[in-house]
Amino acid sequence: MDLVEIAPNAEPPVCKVMDYSKYKYEQDRKAKAARKKQVRVEVKEMKFRPKIDVGDYETKKNHVMRFLRKGARVKITIMFRGREMAHPEQGLNVLDRLAEDLRPYATVEQQPKMEGRNMHMLVAPIRGAFDKEELQDEGEDNNQKKGR
Asked: Which segments of the chain does DSSP mark as H helices, in order?
């Protein structure tokens, strides 16, 4: 058994008689359990170009939706090359269109910002936004199974 000082700043200081090695072991176990339960937010990145076509835009938007559904934040980058740098408003239009399409599912955490030849925007998922969609999908699946 050891004499362990629990609260050195208290008046009078508080001490306790205990098995110090067992106490340290229990503290380590608690810390490990806390780390295990901790959720690490992942940041995915999707790159667009200012002159993106409709089909490519839809495909990349669906990838962004998939990342958001999994709970990850998404950094959206518009890459400019050559003369495209003269028209940053085209990239801004793409980001605005994407933000509008994702409005029911995500919030814009960081507004579009130009850094060198790239323009960035960060979106984060809205909690519970995909739950409603999944419930509707399950309802449609059940109706199809019943032949309705």
From this structure: 20-37, 54-69, 88-101, 129-146
